Amino acid sequence: MAQLKQERAEQTRRTLLLAAAEVFDESGYAGASITRILKRAGVTAGALYFHFGSKEGLAKAVMVEQGEHLELPGGPDGLQRLVYITLYLARQLQVDPVLRGGVRLAVEQGEFGLQDDEAYQGWIQVFDEQLLAARSHGELAHDALVDEVSWLLVGSFTGMQLFSQITTHRADLPARIRMLWRYLLPSVASPQIKRSIVIDDAPSAEQSA
Amino acid sequence: MAQLKQERAEQTRRTLLLAAAEVFDESGYAGASITRILKRAGVTAGALYFHFGSKEGLAKAVMVEQGEHLELPGGPDGLQRLVYITLYLARQLQVDPVLRGGVRLAVEQGEFGLQDDEAYQGWIQVFDEQLLAARSHGELAHDALVDEVSWLLVGSFTGMQLFSQITTHRADLPARIRMLWRYLLPSVASPQIKRSIVIDDAPSAEQSA
Description:
2 copies of one chain form a homodimer. By secondary structure, chain A is mostly helical. Chain A is built from 10 helices and no strands. The A-B interface holds A 28-31, 104, 107-113, 115-117, 120, 144, 148-149, 151-152, 154-167, 176, 179-180, 182-184, 186-188 and B 28-31, 104, 107-113, 115-117, 120, 144, 148-149, 151-152, 154-167, 176, 179-180, 182-184, 186-188.
């Protein structure tokens, strides 16, 4: 019984998070009324305050958990997987309301009084993991530093998706991220691996199986 | 007489723009009350509506005119001047309220219902000018394209200054922009010029005189 209750509570929390992400993505923080989020989720105000405490708490959760539901492309860790992950994120930003809502709040958070880098640091960790594997496999150029490259990727990606959003509603984002890699790879990849990195989407599961 | 009147009007407009940029930089769009802007500027509400029409009109002007007062580093057009300009912007973002206010609004504009790329396109033009000169002087790598590099710089710079703002109040921004150039230059600069580009602030006017 207790477990069933907990599962239901977890389900309600996910429903709320998804509804909130959608509304934040459409209308930003100020434009997202609690009434609209509750109506979209089909839950009570009590559930929102129980799980998130406040609208700001809900927004923080959307920001920080923006990537937790994603199924990042698999394959061996390293530079190739890192390229696949960034291109996957570019495509998800075109269609995934939770990621879009979280990224929008992370970018616009100054407007509702936050200065919270947790969402950014989450991506730094994801990228670091691939870069450390790349380093240990001899895939990184001698003077490319893991900390620098992951910072550069998170910073550049953040601005590029914003610029792409403002100019083309992110229609050109995958092409822009491929472009970023074309310019960065000569400095980041070791001479041995440079030519073998594919700057494109990961092969689909069927193809790679 | 008519000219004096026009000069006074222009002065009032500048005073308002500066005061608004300061308040937007401190508090964002929603947090910047018209009352506070008028008090800071020491002008009447009538002047604000005469020059800008509305708070949104004022915000648009701050966004679009964010760089018009800047004295960009001089010197011959080309890749070196482009590097100097980006490092100058990194330093100005630490101290210049008009640039800071304009950039903040351009990043957070979604929160107040805008999707306006004019401020971004202004920087594209500035960067294009230097890259076209670089191209005509043989300073660009064979496969570096002017349109791509300027887009990449504007997109990356936008996100890097935001990430730097959230993590260090932009204390590390100049170092981050130097880092960006270290990684980009091998793909952007022609082999002939690569080693001669100085990735640092422009020499001061006294030094270069």
